Amino acid sequence: MRALIVGGGGREHALAWKLQKDQPSIEIVAAPGNPGIAALGRCVPVSADDVAGIVRLATNEKPQLVVIGPEAPLAAGLADALRSAEIPVFGPSRAAARIESSKAFAKALMREAGVPTARATRFVDAAAAKRSARELGAPVVIKASGLAAGKGVIVCETMAEADAAIDAMLTNDSFGTAGREVLVEEFMEGEELSLFAITDGTTVLPMLAAQDHKRLLEGDRGPNTGGMGAYAPVSLGSEALVADAVDRIFLPTLDALRSANAPFSGLLYAGLMLTAQGPRVVEFNARFGDPETEAILPLLESSLLEPVLAVASGSGLAGHELRWSSKHAVTTVVAASGYPDAPRKGASIKLPPPEGNVHVFHAGTALDSAGKLVTSGGRVFAVTAVAATLDAARRESARVAGAIELEGKQLRRDIGWREQERGAGASRN
Ligand code: AMP
After folding, report:
1. Residue 186 CA: which ligand 1 atom is closest?
2. Strand ranges inside 250-345, DSSP E
3. No. of helices (H) and no. of strands (E), the chain
4. Alpha carbon of 345 to those of 224, 368, 377, 391: distances in Å?
5. Between vectors from CA 296 to CA 82 and to CA 219, what angle results, nearest 5°?
6. Where are the beta strands (DSSP E) in 276-337?
C-alpha cells in the first residue's frame, strides 16, 4: 500500500503519522513533505501547488491513495486531474472546493439550502459596499471572497474600519484578485467551534469537535494568525450539537453541492459560531484544518485510512464508523520570531528528546546545507500532548513546546483556556 500526501505542514505530518499508525507497512510518499514526514517515508521536492508536477509524480508512483492537504491545489483542480488519470484521491473537485475558494459561492449556496449563517451581500463596488455596511451597523465583517491565506477577513468595530477594509480590498487591491469581490457580513456573537466531517458526498462521518486559537497572544489578543493552537474535545460540541449540525448544516450543504453539479467528497470542515439562535456557519473549508488536525487525529482510535480509502476509491462510507479515545489533546504551535508578518527563516532548532504521549509535528522546518534542522516558515511545530485531563494535556503540551530550542520562538501557554474556565475537561472515563 502506497499513499501520496500532498503538502508539507503540520497537518500533513499528522496525516502521515496516523495513516502509518493505521497500517504500519504503508509506504508514505510526500510532496514536498518536511523533515518530520521524512522520518516516516519519502519526501519528493514537488511543490503542493504544482498540479502538473504532482500528477506526473502520482503517475510514476502509482499510489493506491492520494490525500491532498492544502486548499490551493484543490482550488487549482488537482483532484480532478488525478481522477482523470484514474488515481484514487481524497479531496474534492475544483468545482466542489469553491465552498472554500469562493466565499460568495458558499454564501449563495447556504442561502439556497437554508443553512444557518450570517446575512451577507457581495459587492464589487466600494460605494455600494460602504452603504451596505452602514445598513448593518457596527460591528460588521468585511471579507475578501477569494482565497487569502486566512487573512481576508476583517472584523470591524467602527464604520471607519469598515471603510478602510473595503477600500483596501476593492480600491487599493491590497488583497489581489481574492479581494476584487467582497462580502459585507452581519457580525455573529458566540464561541467558535471547528467541526470536520469525512464524506463521500452523501454519508457524513463527523469527527470530534475542536476549538482553535487564531490570535497570536495569550487571552486571544493580538494579530490573527493561521492558528497558534487547538484542543479537542470541546464540551460545547456535544453529541446532540454535532447531530444537529449534521442534519441542518452538513447534509443540506452536500445536497446543494450535488444539485449545483459539484458533488463534494473528502473532508468538509465547518467553522461554526455557537450563537444564541444555535450553531451558524462562519465558513466552510474543503480540507483538514491546521492546527485542529494535529489535535484531533491523536484521539482517533479507529482507522483513518479505511474511511479515507473508501471515499477515494468510490466504495462509499456506508457501514464505516469512527471511534474516539476518551482522553484530551492540546496542540501548542511553536512559531518563528517575526511571525505572522515576517517569520525568520533559517534559524537553527534543537529538539528535546521524544516522549511517549507528546507528538512533535513538523510544520515550517527544513534541513540546511549541512543537514541541520532550521526554520522555513512561520509556524514551525505543532506540539500535541494527549492526557486523561485537559489540565494535564495543557501542561504537557506547553512544557514540551517550551523545551524546543529556537531563538525568538513564540508560543501560547494558554491553549484551551476557555474550556478550562468552563470547568470542563475532567477525565472522561
Ligand atoms: P473565516 O476566515 O471566515 O473563518 O474568518 C476568520 C475569523 O473571523 C473567524 O474565525 C471569526 O473569528 C471571524 N469571523 C468571520 N465571520 C464572522 C462573523 N460573521 N461574525 C463574527 N466573527 C466572524
Report:
1. 19
2. 266-275, 278-285, 328-335
3. 15, 24
4. 20, 11, 6, 33
5. 120
6. 278-285, 328-335
Cα distances from 415 to residues 124, 206, 391, in angstroms, run 38, 23, 10
Q: Tell me the three state secondary structure of residue 163.
A: helix
Residue 175, all three cell numbers = 488583497
* Residue of 282, 284, 287, 418 to test ligand 1 pocket, by largest number of atoms within 8 Å of CB: 282
Whether the CB of 188 sits within 6 Å of ligand 1: yes
The sheet with strand 27-32 has its strands ordered as 42-43, 27-32, 2-7, 65-68, 89-90
E strand or H helix at 306: helix 305-313
Ligand 1 centroid to Cα of residue 300, in Å, is 28
Half-sphere exposure (Cβ direction) of 167: Cα atoms closer than 13 Å:
6
Classified as helix, coil or strand, 374 is: strand
Residue nearest to atom 12 of ligand 1 (CA): 192
Alpha helices per DSSP H over 46-125: 51-61, 71-75, 78-84, 98-101, 103-113
The C-alpha atoms of residue 61 and residue 47 are separated, in whole angstroms, by 16
359 alpha carbon, distance to own chain's centre: 18
Q: Give me the residue label for grid cell 477525565.
A: 427
Instruction: Establish whether the linkage from the previous residue to 343 is cis, with ω within 30° of 0.
Output: no
* All residues at 6 or more sequence positions from 353 whose CB lies less than 8 Å from its CB, including other chains: none
DSSP letter assigned to residue 324 = B
Of the candidates 143, 148, 134, the residue with the CA atom closest to the CA atom of residue 178 = 148
Angle between helices 159-166 and 126-136 (to 10 degrees): 150
pLDDT in tens, the chain (429 residues): 999 999 999 999 999 999 999 999 999 999 999 999 999 999 999 999 999 999 999 999 999 999 999 999 999 999 999 999 999 999 999 999 999 999 889 999 999 999 999 999 999 999 999 999 999 999 999 998 877 766 788 999 999 999 999 999 988 877 777 778 899 999 999 999 999 999 999 999 999 999 999 999 999 999 889 999 999 999 999 999 999 999 999 999 999 999 999 999 999 999 999 999 999 999 999 999 999 999 999 999 999 999 999 999 999 999 999 999 999 999 999 999 999 999 999 999 999 999 988 999 999 999 999 999 999 999 999 999 999 999 999 999 999 999 999 999 999 999 999 999 998 777 765
